[in-house]
Write a structure and sequence with these properties.
alpha+beta; Alpha-Beta Plaits; two-stranded antiparallel ribbon; 2 helices; binds iron/sulfur cluster
C-alpha cells in the first residue's frame, strides 16, 4: 500500500507529544515543539490512525494515497 498523506495543523498542535510517543518514526517535534511528519510510511496505518485519534486537539489529518479522508471521520 502506498504511504498515507498525513498533515499536522500547527494552529491546533499543542506539542504534547502523544503522536511522537505512539509513532516516533512518523512524527517528531520541530524547534517550536510542534509535531511534523518525517516519514508517513514508517508505521502501519492503524498506528498512524491511533495517533490521530489520540491527539487531544484533533490536529492530525490522514488521507489515503488516493486522497480519501481516513481521519477525521466525516
Ligand atoms: S498529539 Fe496532536 S497536539 Fe500532540 S504533538 Fe501530536 S499533533 Fe501535536
Amino acid at each position: 500500500m502506498d504511504a498515507p498523506r498525513i498533515t499536522v495543523d500547527h494552529t491546533r498542535c499543542v506539542g504534547n507529544a502523544q503522536c511522537v510517543t505512539l509513532a516516533p518514526a512518523v512524527f517528531r517535534h520541530n524547534e517550536a515543539v510542534q509535531s511534523e511528519v518525517v516519514d508517513p510510511s514508517a508505521a502501519p496505518l492503524e498506528l498512524i490512525l491511533k495517533a490521530a485519534r489520540f491527539c487531544p486537539t484533533s490536529a492530525i489529518r490522514v488521507e489515503s494515497a488516493s486522497g480519501a479522508v481516513l481521519f477525521p471521520a466525516s
